[in-house]
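REQUEST FORM: STRUCTURE PREDICTION
Request ID: SP-0412
Submitted by: Lab K.M.
Chain count: 1
Length (residues): 565
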Amino acid sequence: MLIWIWLGSWQRQIAEQELRAQQQLQVYRATLVSEIARFENIPRALQSHPVLTQVLVNPDNTDVITRANRLLEQLANDTGVEALYLMNAQGTVLAASNWRQSHSFIGQNYRFRPYFHDALQGSFGEFYGVGATTRVPGYFFGLQLNHEGSDQGVLAAKITLLELETSWQPTRDLVMVVDPDQVIALASRTELKFKTLTPLSPQARQRLDRTRQYAPMPLTALAVDSRNGHPTWQGKQYRVSQLELPRRQWRLQLWWPSRPLMVNATLVTAVAGFSIVAMTLLLLYWRQRRRYIQVQLKAKNELEYKVMERTSALAVSNRQLERQVEERFQAEARLRSMQHELIHINRLAALGQMAASVAHEVNQPLTALKNQSANTLMLAQRGMYPQVEESLSTMVRLVDRIARLTSQLKLFAATRRKTRGLCRLDEALDNVLSWLSPRLHEQQIRLVRTPATDQVLPMELHALEQVLANLLGNSLDALAGREEARITLEAGDDFLCLWDNGPGIAPSLLDKVTEPFFSTKEAGQGLGLGLAIVRDLVEASDGRLEITGSTSGGARFTLNWSQNE
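STATUS: Completed
RESULT:
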């Protein structure tokens, strides 16, 4: 019975697969015929073109040849033809669309091709083969071209079918076009192309060598075994569906694997066998079920009594757990309330620190501005106007300094904006040193500037000044009281690096120092905003801030834009 089920399933699947294969072949044939047909009228459209007939009349006229070359080149580009070329009655190419290319057909002789002879005899020549010059396979058309008072000639067109073959590749089946000599002319797999299904006879090989149809391909026979009349290739057994093609007496074949059908038939048989066994087991189970239900009814009564006892005990435990859960919820609510109060207190403390720091930093330039104003008034009274102008410039710089000090808080509080731009490093550095130089001299800190500080960096001037002011200020604080203190500055096209020989930053704090209000300084000495502002400004300019240890023992800050261009 199982054998009958297997055979029925196998035959039904074979018939269905053959029907699907024939439908696929119809689609492949229509596509192939359409691809060839859309180009075959191109030679007919050019058969009477005056530029081409003039070439046959004046084959030695360079200007005529050039016009013909350009005409064929333009038509080939517009139509997508691989090549268009004009041959004289002896088969020598006089003009070609690829005349500018290294593998130009001009001067080549193709009288050995069958399409040339067919065209000279008045027929429409067609031929498929490997290009004698380019070694690229293609489909050739040939048409006689003559004009009163001129010699005969042949206008030929070559198209490539490589894109069509590429569209066949995704299918798991093998699609191929076989010519009358059993040569595989087109295939969905490159290893099948230009193989033969059967060994070539000496007469067929001599004929193919004479026309150079597949030269220099060796045309070796495909390693195919036959089992029960069906081919086996690379360890897989196939069934072959075939459809005749009127052109070139080709045959379109579709090789589809038969093993999946055999596996499906086996699965169907296994399912049927399993169903029979399952029905038998179901009858046995029904008998055992009756006995089992009787036993279960007795056990159920006993179990219900035990469940009632256990439920009573669980109810007592559940009430205890509910009280514990309620107490825990209350404790968590108190904890959240305390956390909110602590956050509020921290915010008030941070605001106090920020106000104190801003007042301290702004006080110095305000005092200097007051003194400078008195000095300016005195100079004006004495008529020392050049000094008055210089004093006013100094006052402008002091006002700019106050604006830069307050801009830190504005930058930290405001929504981030883009700071991408271009500015000179030396200009920004000179502006920052105009108010940091006193601290450098007071602490006897040496600033080492590399020769490339005139570098242009991809950041706005105001933002770069803010970055330098914060980084140099942190280094000055870290080097306080240190002998032979040194700050080094190095720059390139897409990076800026600053490091010192101070105590450095502990490795465990490297990921925290850029967080807002985080500071390693003593209370009241800083807001903890400097590195947070630096990081935001650098990232807003499409850069990256890297903080590492320095070989000299201090901290190293690198602004890198190299991976964001």
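NOTES: The two ends are 74 Å apart (CA to CA).
Reviewed by: T.R.
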